[in-house]
Amino acid sequence: MIVENDVNETVQLLSKLIQNKCVNPPGNEIANLKTIELHLKSKGIECQIFESAPNRGNLLARIKGAKDGPRLMFGPSHVDVVPVPNPDKWSVDPFGGEIKDGFIWGRGAMDMLFIVVSQVQAFVKIFEEGIEKGELILLIVSDEEAGGTFGAKWMMENHPDLIETDYCLTEMGGAFLADGKVVFMIGEKGGAWKRIKFKGTPGHGSMPYGSNNAVVKASKAILRIQNYCDNKIPLTTEYLGYLAEGLGMSKIQKFMVTTKSLLPLTLKLIGKKDPDTAKIIHSLSRMTMSPNMVKGGIKANIIASNASIAVDIRTLPGQDEEYVLKHMKKALGDLAKEAEIIQIEEEDGGVNSKGNSSEPASEFVSLLEKSVSMEFPGSTLVPFLMPGVTDMRYFREKGVQSYGFSLLDPKTTAKDMSSLPHGIDERIRVKTVELTLKVYYNVAKLAL
Ligand SMILES: [Zn+2]
């Protein structure tokens, strides 16, 4: 059973991890891994740290039951955090790990150190009480915020046999939408970032008539891409039904959101009142294409002979490279034959991964639901697809059922969820740490 002292220890551990300041880049996650190792050792638990680069690595521990059974992993959970570009705007020291007003404050508190410490402490409790069957695995990793090269991906490439599992539980999820409806993540969109290049013919800028200008072509292309993404790209409502359910929409609202032909109108109506929800509906209903960078020309009086656009493309599960190129070409129209479309490689900061998803309903998912209803009787789980990319993709590729799971204090608002991770005054409620510790403990008890 989880008692008050467990919650206190978890909160103290969170504060220490924040103070260790494992900002990526460069990461230096070894500081957090050592702190966790020390905590586990003080409880008599053996663990292993695998060094993936100087001062970086991944921590693994396991508990085995006497009988055969399912393997459950807490993780892959990352201990790196993103930088703090404007510490003067914070009301506390971003790396002080202060505990005040019912919160733990600091960079990483929400993304995702509170889940890490809840998992570590739940693992400790389960170790002390033992499991009947199967296996509980704890995997703490580095480098999630920069793509996982030295973290989850490194473990998958170097020690795949040690991290074999049936289920993974890690960030994020756990927010209450409508009454008693708790979000959990079943999958995520993929990334297929592209650079589109145009060529022109240089000439004097004082006589532009009839010129072949690469910058003009790029700007036409930008408008076409945006228009195609908003108005012409094929739509799906597969992931919107869950959302409508979770938000507790009325029958008519649900019909509006889940009927493809009504979706453009629905987006306009919702967008006026609730732009945040409209953004989510837009991203869950299609492959999105956002032209976010543009470069071109060399001088104001020379007709541009080169221009390029960087486009952030996010795919739904099942949409492959062929799909991406087909629709990019359609979007460009007659400019497609002049455009050179190339992938932005990961070394250049690109994101290239397939959209992926685990089962929205299964025996294991009902155990997750039960573990939540032990804290909030009668509550149900609502599956959700994340627009962003996480380490879970490496596990779903191997067929592991992977879920984003935590349990937030119902006082946490949708605004907290969107503004605090990576934001100013990042913090987490002590109550959220307690609830997340309890659900992780509950689910391991139920499953193993
Ligand atoms: Zn994260």
Give a structural overview.
This protein has 2 domains: 4-188 and 355-447, Aminopeptidase, CATH 3.40.630; 191-352, 2-Layer Sandwich (Alpha-Beta Plaits), CATH 3.30.70.360. The protein contains 14 helices and 18 strands. The longest helix is centred in the N-terminal third of the chain and has 21 residues, at 109-129. Helix 6 (240-246) runs antiparallel to helix 7 (251-258), helix 8 runs antiparallel to helix 9 and helix 11 (363-373) crosses helix 14 (430-447). By secondary structure, the protein is an alpha+beta fold. The protein is 36% helix and 23% strand. The strands form 4 sheets. It has a 6-stranded mixed sheet, sandwiched between helices. It has helices at 4-19, 30-42, 109-129, 152-158, 214-231, 240-246, 251-258, 263-273, 275-284, 321-332, 363-373, 392-396, 414-419, 430-447, and strands at residues 48-53, 56-64, 67-78, 99-100, 103-105, 133-141, 167-170, 181-188, 190-192, 194-199, 288-296, 306-315, 340-343, 352-353, 356-357, 380-386, 401-404, 427-429. Residues 78, 111-112, 144, 171 line the site of zinc ion (ZN). Residues 78, 111-112, 144, 171 line the site of zinc ion.
